[in-house]
Write a structure and sequence with these properties.
- With 379 residues, the chain is mostly helical.
- It has one domain (3-378).
- It has eleven helices and no strands.
- The chain has helices spanning 3-27, 48-64, 85-113, 126-137, 161-176, 183-203, 217-244, 253-265, 273-296, 302-337, 347-378.
- The chain starts with a helix and ends with a helix.
Length: 379
């Protein structure tokens, strides 16, 4: 795959990250504040996580599938050193873990600003906070005894890290098993994944696929099923894309694919549990893969390429550090803003949280993540 195609796919990751940010701003504080109509415009933006998983599998498969030392698909035409499991793990750690660490640190700072208390007002000891942070630094889900917020989050200092945990699981699964599977067996895996996530979405009490963030058993299983379908689906798509080598597309591929993604993720609630569930499954099983396939054929150049590339570079830091800002936003709205509703426009705190998240992510990208990754990659 050429560099511009990676730019478009990475740019779409940035679009999805922004939509997830909007989802958290508009939905996670709705119980604390009466928003003006219309409400719930970003109800389905949490599906950006599933888009991340599919896209991650696609990029991993396209970048590494022919490079493994222990598979017959190794191609001498790649011109690169054969890849081992330890080499792959090092690459993934360098790519992902610096922002995991930063996300935990930002989460701790936000928690201290909030007063080191749970949502119910009970105080949390420094020892409990320290242990919770240590687990989070290694992406280990927190047990109930270390849930410093009391909302059953598996990563209570930075909730969205649950998906990074499953991203790590998916990477290990790829390194240990999936890259070795012949394509026909990978198709079987994906078919089983489709059946599993569909059954879960249709049969669980709440409906849909908005699961994975909590340590509750059903929630945890839902998150695992989302990854176990989406990541291998992306890998299968990468193999099919390589085999078919579709003709590159020129024109407004990024614009059109971004508009489609924003429209899908920005869909409001359809009013009924079953309708929302069907919509989510249609996105996961067909529309998201179609967008990725279309975008992978596109090219960008000039300033468009630079803009799309920066959006892609920003996507991971934004996703990794935005939620501590949301915690502060929820605290501010829930405790302090109500007395001022008559004369403070309700969009002001939302815009502040949105801008602060992007600013912090940009600083992390330019001053910490990219410099550290360059240094680690050099070693």
């Amino acid at each position: 795959m050429s560099k511009p195609r990676y730019d478009i796919l990475d740019g779409l990751r940035g679009v999805a990250a922004l939509m997830v940010l909007l989802y958290h701003i508009f939905n996670d504080a709705k119980s604390f504040f009466v928003w003006p109509e219309p409400v719930g415009e970003f109800y389905h933006s949490f599906l950006g996580v599933d888009f991340f998983f599919i896209l991650s599998g696609f990029v991993m498969g396209y970048a590494y599938d022919l490079r493994w030392k222990d598979t017959p698909r190794l191609s001498s035409s790649e011109g690169k050193e054969p890849l081992t499991l330890m080499g792959f793990i090092k690459r993934r750690l360098i790519r992902l873990h610096p922002m995991v660490v930063m996300g935990v640190l930002v989460g701790v700072v936000a928690y201290l600003i909030q007063g080191s208390i749970r949502w119910d007002g009970t105080e949390v000891s420094f020892q409990t906070l320290l242990l919770s942070a240590l687990l989070a630094l290694f992406l280990i889900p927190a047990p109930a005894s270390l849930d410093v917020r009391g909302y059953t989050e598996s990563f209570p200092l930075n909730g969205p890290h649950w998906s990074l945990f499953f991203e790590y699981v998916g990477s290990l699964l790829y390194g240990l098993v999936l890259h070795r599977l012949p394509t026909k067996w990978l198709r079987v895996w994906v078919a089983c994944g489709i059946l599993s996530i569909s059954a879960f979405a249709l049969l669980n009490e709440g409906g849909g696929v908005a699961y994975g963030w909590s340590s509750e058993p059903e929630n945890f299983v839902g998150g695992a099923l989302r990854m176990l379908y989406a990541y291998p689906m992306g890998l299968l798509m990468a193999r099919m894309f390589r085999q078919r080598s579709p003709k590159p597309l020129r024109g407004h591929v990024f614009l059109l694919s971004s508009m489609a993604l924003v429209a899908l993720l920005g869909m409001p609630s359809l009013g009924y549990k079953d309708a929302n569930t069907i919509y989510q499954l249609v996105c996961l099983l067909s529309l998201f893969p179609a967008i990725i396939w279309y975008a992978a054929r596109g090219t960008v150049s000039g300033w468009h390429q630079r803009a799309v590339s920066f959006l892609g570079r920003l996507s991971y830091p934004l996703y990794a550090v935005h939620y501590p800002v949301i915690y502060l936003y929820i605290t501010w709205v829930g405790r302090d803003l109500h007395p001022y509703q008559d004369y403070m426009h309700p969009w002001l705190p939302a815009l502040t949280a949105f801008a602060a998240s992007i600013l912090i992510a940009t600083l992390c990208l330019l001053l910490y993540d990219e410099p550290l990754r360059r240094k680690l990659s050099g070693k």
